[in-house]
Design brief:
By secondary structure, the protein is of the alpha/beta class. Helix 3 links the parallel strand 3 and strand 4. The protein is elongated, with a radius of gyration of 19 Å. It holds the Pfam family GerE.
C-alpha cells in the first residue's frame, strides 16, 4: 500500500530535503507541500493525503493552527498528523498532541526512521522520538511537572520577528533601540510593532506592554 504524504514547514530548503529523503522509500508518495498556515490548510483539504508531516513553529499560528483548520474542514476525514519539529520542549509536544497529532518526532531523525514513523502513524500507531512519549504520558496522567500550555491564538499568530519586537517593547526599548538590537531599520520596527498591535488587538503601546506582562513576556 502507498501512503500519500503532505509536508508542512516554513523553510523551503527543509521541505526539499524531506522530499528527497522520502523519495526513495517504498510505499510513500509526497503529494504536496506548503510553507504557510493558509496554504497548508488549502493544500491538505484539496489533496486529501494520508499523513501530514507538520512543523510546530511557523508564522500564523503554527502547526496547531494547521491541524485545527484541517480538522474543522474535513472532520473525521482529516488525515493523520505527525509533528516534525526542531523543538523537543514538553509544552510544544503536549500542545500538539492535545490538538490531535498522532505522533511527534524531532528533526534529528534520519530519513529511514522518518519513513518508518510515517508508515506507523498511517497504520494507527502513535510515534514519538525518545523521551518525548514520557511528556505525553505524564501530562495525561496528571503527573507532569510542566504546566499545561494555555492556548493563546493571539500570541500564536505572531511571527518570530514580531515576538522579538514584542519582547523588547515589553522591556521598554524605544523603536530606535529595537532597531539597533535586531539590526533592522526603525521603519521595519514600526511595521512589526503595528502588526503586533493589530494581531493582539491592543490599542496602544501601554496596553500592549500590560498585555505582554500578563503573559510573562519580556
Amino acid at each position: 500500500m502507498t501512503y500519500r504524504v503532505f509536508l508542512v514547514d516554513d523553510h523551503g530548503v527543509f521541505r526539499s530535503g524531506v522530499r528527497a529523503e522520502l523519495a526513495g522509500e517504498d510505499g510513500l508518495d509526497v503529494v504536496g507541500d506548503a510553507g504557510t498556515v493558509a496554504e497548508s490548510i488549502a493544500g491538505i483539504v484539496e489533496l486529501r493525503p494520508d499523513v501530514v508531516l507538520l512543523d510546530v513553529h511557523m508564522p500564523g499560528g503554527g502547526g496547531v493552527a494547521v491541524l485545527r483548520g484541517v480538522t474543522d474542514a474535513l472532520g473525521s476525514d482529516a488525515p493523520v498528523f505527525l509533528a516534525l519539529s526542531v523543538s523537543d520542549a514538553a509544552t510544544d509536544v503536549i500542545a500538539t498532541i492535545r490538538a490531535g497529532a498522532r505522533g511527534y518526532v524531532t528533526k534529528t531523525i534520519d530519513g529511514a526512521e522518518l519513513a518508518d514513523a510515517v508508515r506507523r502513524v498511517a497504520e494507527g500507531d502513535a510515534v514519538f522520538s525518545p523521551r518525548l512519549a514520557g511528556f505525553v504520558l505524564d501530562s495525561f496522567t496528571g503527573r507532569s511537572p510542566t504546566p499545561e500550555p494555555q492556548l493563546d491564538p493571539e500570541l500564536d499568530s505572531l511571527t518570530r520577528r514580531e515576538m522579538e519586537v514584542l519582547r523588547l517593547l515589553a522591556r521598554g526599548y524605544t523603536y530606535r533601540e529595537i532597531a539597533e538590537e535586531l539590526f533592522i531599520s526603525v521603519k521595519t520596527v514600526e511595521t512589526h510593532a503595528s502588526n503586533v498591535l493589530r494581531k493582539t488587538q491592543q490599542s496602544n503601546r501601554n496596553a500592549l506592554t500590560r498585555w505582554a506582562v500578563n503573559r510573562q513576556i519580556g
